User: Fold these one by one.
Assistant:
Number 1:
Amino acid sequence: MPPDTEKRRTSLGEIVTNNYVWRSIFRHGYADTPRNRVLQVSANVWLHLHPSKMRRHGIRYRHTWCAGGLTFLLYLCTVVTGVVLMFYYRPTGEYAYWDIKYLDFDVPFGMIMRNMHRWSAHGMVIFIWLHMFRVFMTGSYKPPREFNWVVGVNLLTLTLLLSFTGYLLPWDQLAIWAVTVGTNMARATPLLGNEGPFGPQLGMTPRYDARALLTAGTVVGAPTLLRFYVLHCIFIPIIASILMILHFWRIRKDGGISGPL
Amino acid sequence: MAENITPAVIQDQEEVKVTSGRARAALPAADLPDKVHTWPYLVRAEFISGCVLLLVLLVWSITVDAPMEDPANPTKTPNPSKAPWYFLGLQEMLVYFDPWIAGVLLPTLIIVGLMVIPYIDINPKGNGYYTWSERKFAIGVFLTGFLGMWVGMITIGVFFRGPGWNLFMPWDYWDPHLVRPLTNIDLPYYLGIRSEMGAMLLGAILVLGWLVGVPGAIYQWKKDHPLMKQLGLVRYGIVATLFMIMSGVLVKMALRLTLNIKYILVIPNILNI
């Protein structure tokens, strides 16, 4: 700071920030002091997920690959673009396909919203695998983080189910047959599928078994579309979000990013 | 940043300097403080990687359109009908196993197997850092399962499977009328056993021997090994079962692809493995 402080003119930045209203919103300054560095994290509702100080290796790309954080970022991308798509999409047999066509050709930025939704969903699958790979290779599932790994495996499963339920929604040939192949396997569930071991003996029929529960009928049809839509937009995202809260909270409670003991 | 530091924080200047790049290079690693501020060091790394990812996503979304085919038509089955790419590993297993094993049992075992990893891997080494020499078995199994089998089978499903789920090279023409003769036979038949009872008996011996006999024999043999004592019978049983099932899948795939073996054990109407 220059010695003739009192002679200095007030800058525009000071006029904006040096008043009662601004300081009621932002409690601390931006000057690079150790105190402010801590407050930037601990006084920020989004950043306070992080500890205010962390071990040195944890900030290195080569340790974490940022894969977990980027998985979450891609999830946020799918949420934002997905909500936009929901304004235009009706999950019924007669409208679904043509609503997607309408999005692709007539809605301003409709195509890029759909593209970003689809590619960030694929990216999320890839990044969650990378994250699992990295966590395994650094042995980060070892004590005390055993349970957080279990939560992570559940999140991986939910991510795949989110992708799978979303795959049906364009209601084109690719969608219906991919989901037909996928749901056909449920036919063979032991005890609960009509073609599975001991299924018929327990009274399972094509109309009344695990697959029928999933597809809401004997074939992948309009009722399946509605069912997958609700699973995709409401049910699985809520469960996944709850598990993400648990997952992120456990990272802190289990001692932050893993490192050499 | 160092130029603007006010006198009040001079005593903290040292730390700020030490953590900045150029000064760090001059210091031996042991003299560095163990902890750094999350702001700016971690937040900066996250911000940059997030920006790069969003940029790639945006460019990708501008240049590559999401697929859109003809309207859904339940009366027109495409050949091949492929599951979404991330499930093609499971669809590939349908080639080698009955649907309830490939589509239900093995996926369940993959998920459960992943979840129990922290509870069966009792090696305390390699916690929080990369190492190969300290956990060769764990990493070897994981790489085989994840890269070799899961990613490998997805690659086969995406690039090498065409009409009739026949194998095609990526540059081959997908001939929908191609018929590959199915000469698959069961393993006991291949070994010369012609009676149904005998085939069932041999199949049961092989499968049970693989899943129970081999792990049991190793347990008897290495019972007094310190590692085995540490593991305990239950944990060893889970490790051995999961390991033998995983390598069993590989063995079955190899038998099918090289000798056209269809099943090893056939118990009519109940179980085919």
Number 2:
Amino acid sequence: MRITDIIKELDLKVISGNSSITNEVTGGYVSDLLSDVIGNAREGNIWITVQTHQNVVAVASLKDLAAVIIVKGLQPDSDTIEKSNIENIPVLSTETDTFNIAGRLYELLNKK
Amino acid sequence: MKTFRADLHLHSVLSPCGDLEMSPGNIVEEAYRKGIDIIGITDHNTTRHAALVTRLAEKKGIFVMTGAEINTIEEIHCLVFFENTDTLTLLQEYIDDNLPDIHNIPKIFGHQVEVDEYENIIYEEKRLLASAIRKSITELEKFVHLNRGLFIPSHIDRLKNSIYSQLGLLPENLNADALEVSRATTIEKFAQVHPEIRKYTLTRSSDAHQLCDIGKETTTFLIEKADFNEIRMALAGKGGRRLITA
């Protein structure tokens, strides 16, 4: 499934990194510890987090993640937005919390 | 220029995890007994014991770096130090404005009590000091430097509440006066895995929560005299002031 389909289905807001939103998503990962994401997220995953620091983009780029969803309407830091445009990492936003958005993403990715 | 041995990271009984014997009086006595010249009083998200520790330490010829160990919204612990009572008061106000109103449960988290020099309990902090404040590490750093303070992310090697555990990598352009490497490892060992830390001044301290741990790890400063500005200069490696690594 492409990021654009997920954006539509889950009603996500695109904050930045628009240039890569047609990329394919391989699965999802949920964590707020960036050290854990470095260790365990897989290439092409869409990552759900409460973190807004610029390192979110650095880690997503390092791990070749498809996109980041920031939950609860939290606003990413300005340098996070700037970096995501440079690194081509889509930063998406939802008003929903982690549990609910992860549940909906899981359903969507596993729908046959 | 003289050498001064410093333990910049100490928790008193006011920290929920601080042992009951960690009163300002006992901390100063223990530091004096162990020949430590400079101590940092860094309770979790509070400065309430700073004044008393300073007063008692002066009598023993020990210089006190007053501050706190702040828990940022990313749950990164950072040591912050301020030079005088005015700026330390600003720090306490900053904490009060940004600490969530979550009550401590002493049975679970530990007691958060302020004591006087005779060990009488004079205040109990009701809010849980272990909580994260509503400010990011970036915002905290700006606040500290705006008020001429010092900013040192704590125990960067630890797997919890450290800049590496929470943010994965050392942030680009991190404006830290130093980074603290805990006594669980050595600078050499941690720098093998993360050579980028060598760009920063690296301090070692005990992070003592009980008396016997005070001074278990220290930083030696080469400075003219023990005061805030000399330590600031040493951390920046200015004017011939510096840290002496063992």
